[in-house]
Amino acid sequence: MIRYKIYENKNKKSAGYKKFYARAVCEETMGLKTLAAYMAAHNVPFSEGCIYGVLRDMVACIKEVITDGKNVKLDDLAIFSVGLQTKPAASAAEFNATTHIRAVRLRSRATGILRTPVLTNDARVREFGTYVVNKKKPSGGGGGSA
Questions:
Q1: Cα separation, 129 vs 121, whole angstroms
Q2: Which end of the chain is more exposed for a tag (fewer CB within 10 A), N or C?
Q3: Kind and range of the H or E element at 2?
Q4: 103-121 pLDDT, tens digit each
């Protein structure tokens, strides 16, 4: 179940200014250890430790392969690749990698069952309960009594 919050667009330069939209709410981010435990609990013949080791090795190998200029496709998940954030040069002759390449970024493109049309069709959504933005700071000294 994907939960969402409704928010008002407050960007005055946007065509959607003062309109209301939904944002997905993430209640938890799973690390590799938690994911391994989750997978091990799904009646697989591998232990949590074995799964964790394979996942760690997979991450290291994906980094190695993509930094060698190759893409990695995990079927029904994503294609991982690198992208470059660059500054412009006046001409091709003036372009210098050290000066003009600012960052190397990880890119991912969904594949198979995680492509947008499939996710949109399969996902169920629900508003994320009651939520209030409290901008007031709590009152009181914050100290205990002696």
A1: 23
A2: C
A3: strand 2-8
A4: 999 999 999 999 999 999 9
Confidence bin at 102 (pLDDT 50/70/90): very high
Residue 18 to residues 9, 64, 92, 107, 137: CA-CA distances in angstroms? 5, 46, 44, 32, 26
- The pTM score is 0.74
Q: Judge contact between 131 and 6, C-beta under 8 A.
A: no
Q: If you search the block for the tokens 């990695």, which residue do you land on?
A: 72
Q: How far is it, in rounded angstroms, from Cα 24 to Cα 4?
A: 4
Q: Is the pLDDT of residue 13 over 80?
A: yes
Distance CA 128, CA 105 (A): 32
The pLDDT tens digits for 38-47 are 999 998 999 9
Structure-token pair, residue 67: 């930094």
Residue located via tokens 């009651």: 130
Return the domain boundaries, the chain: 30-123
Kindly calculate the radius of gyration of the chain based on its CA atoms and give it in whole angstroms.
23
Structure tokens at 35: 């994911």
Residue pair 18/9 in contact (Cβ under 8 Å)? The answer is yes
